[in-house]
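Sample entry (177 residues):
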Amino acid sequence: MKVLCVLADGFEDVEALAPVAMMRRAGLEVDLCALNDLNVTGSHGTRVIADKLLSDVDYDEYQCLMLPGGKGHKLLEADERVIEYIKKFTNDGKYVAAICAAPTILGRLGLLKNKKYTCFTPMNEDFGGEYVDQYVVTDGKLITARAMAASIEFGFKLIEVLGSAELCRQVKERVLY
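Predicted structure, serialized as tokens:
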């Protein structure tokens, strides 16, 4: 499975990079994708050179869309291309994974209605679904995580779902989890 992780300036460093590092350890292909400039800066000053721009993405290559939180979630939500990708991944039955503030984008799009989900607790609104106070919540092909502290668990869940439980166990063993 191939994962598209979309970054915008202000992304939460750990929420993006920890799950990506875990998935790459598992042998999953993950592309870091930036909105308009390959150079992206996280909310705590971490500078990242993305693998590609959103305009260069071939949608058909990916089975999962991953959205980190942080202040950058506002830029993700304001970008019509990102919104179209979220809708397309959802409508095509592909995985959508979001952590911290990013699930609120899904909520405002109506995609959390009748779903179990989590997000950064202070940002939870009535999205028409069932908020679950856990680090990571999976409902069908929707994977949400609560906050930066859930980043490693989020990465493990993505490995389990996109790879296998055995692959996840192996990675946990290798990182002494």
